[in-house]
Amino acid sequence: MLSLDLFLRLNYLASIMLFLIGLHTMLTHANLIKKVMGMNIMETGIFLFLVSIGYAHGTLSPIIRQSGPEQGLIYTNPLLAAIVLTGIVIAVSTTAYALSIIIKLYEQCGTLDVDRLEKLRS
Amino acid sequence: MRHLPALLLVVAIAYVLALTLTEAPAFGGLDVPARNEVMRFYLDEELDQAGIPNTVTAIIFDYRAYDTMGEATVLFTAVGAAAAVLAGHAGKLVARPMAATDDVILRIVSRMVIPFVQVFGIYVVVYGHLSPGGGFAGGTILGGSMALYLFVFGPKRTARKIPPAWGEIMEGAAAFWYVLVGLGGVLLGANFLANAAAGVPLGVQGQLFSGGAIWLIGLGVGVKVAATIVNLLVHLAGET
Fold first, then answer.
1. Average pLDDT, chain A
2. Tally of domains within chain B
3. Which fold has domain A6-58+75-121?
4. Residues A76, A63 contacting (CB under 8 angstroms)
5. Which residues of chain B have pLDDT under 50?
6. Smallest Cβ distance to B56: which of A53, A82, A92?
7. Distance between A34 CA and the closest CA of chain B, angstroms
8. B1: in domain
9. Is there a contact between B32 and A12 (Cβ–Cβ < 8 Å)?
10. Cβ atoms A38, A29 nearer than 8 A
11. With 80 as the cut, is the pLDDT of residue A27 above it?
12. Has residue B21 been placed in a domain?
């Protein structure tokens, strides 16, 4: 029963796993670049979740073939694709900015280890 | 010792998410709550209102064009902030600047591949309203081809092929172009970024030059995203 349910929700399960892997990476690794990687994995999980909501079995991609409401063709949800596009743009922007700060930090401090950076401050 | 608290937090979040998983609708069904009247409105009305087959492009470049302008501004701000942070990073402690590769196979193969990648990127930008694609996807492909050049041939040769000033001018001009297209709607007596509502001719459905302002906006976004990726990578790769 439960295993069958999980099989029907495999995409959601995978997105949750990706989110948790990314969160764990962000929390446990001391290297700042690995933290950025963890953030990207979390974002990938969320994109997978959004795209999975939009998908339905046996539907066409949202390129409209005929005009009018009753056409007998069922399309995938286009809204989620648009939302994921926005999310990807934000992910690229935050990653680029974070990496540029990391480069500057490495030049100034010579390390990317969070623990050693904290010791440098005090 | 941050492993135990982190693990506990992850397990707690996993528990909450697993609870929602048991309530979630089955994947791929037609009864997902997201398939509501909003989706039906876009799928039913879009071809008549925006005049292009690709619904996703119609949503981002017509219905939500103002939101997409904000998105383009986010990219613009990210490049500007990265450039400001990295200003004058001559790299005392960075071991060495990114160098060109010595690999002959990599150089020759990338030289053969880059033109095809660029043609495909331009195709995806220009036909973004008729087939899957659009300004963001095509611009990323175009920027990716130039990123390949940067990685293989190094920042010095890239700066000779694509002068850094060009990238910055293209990016600013594309952002300005977007605003100009939006102001065109105001000049025609409708809202900012209005398309069919402002009386812009939509053209024949399925033709290359159709969809009115969507095609112009898509072109601008494609140029802008490509320039953004090149600028970001040039800044991150270091001084040339």
1. 86
2. 1
3. Helix Hairpins (1.10.287)
4. no
5. 93, 95, 240
6. A82
7. 15
8. no
9. no
10. yes
11. yes
12. no
ipTM: 0.85
B-chain residues within 8 Å CB-CB of A96?
78-79, 82, 232, 236
For residue B30, count CB atoms less than 10 angstroms from its CB and return exposed for 0-12, middle for 13-18, buried for 19 or more. Answer: exposed
Could you give the angle at the alpha carbon of B142 between the alpha carbons of B160 and B87, nearest 5°?
A: 50
Q: For an interface test with B, which of A5, A8, A64, A66 has the most B Cβ atoms less than 10 Å from its Cβ?
A: A64
| CA B122 – CA B218 distance, rounded (Å) | 11
Q: How far is B119 from chain A (nearest CA, A)?
A: 22
pLDDT beyond 90 at A32:
yes
Residue count (chain A): 122
Structural domain of B112: 52-237
Model pLDDT, residue A105: 87
A98, pLDDT greater than 50: yes
pLDDT of residue B95: 47
pLDDT at position A4, please?
60
Residue type for position B203: G
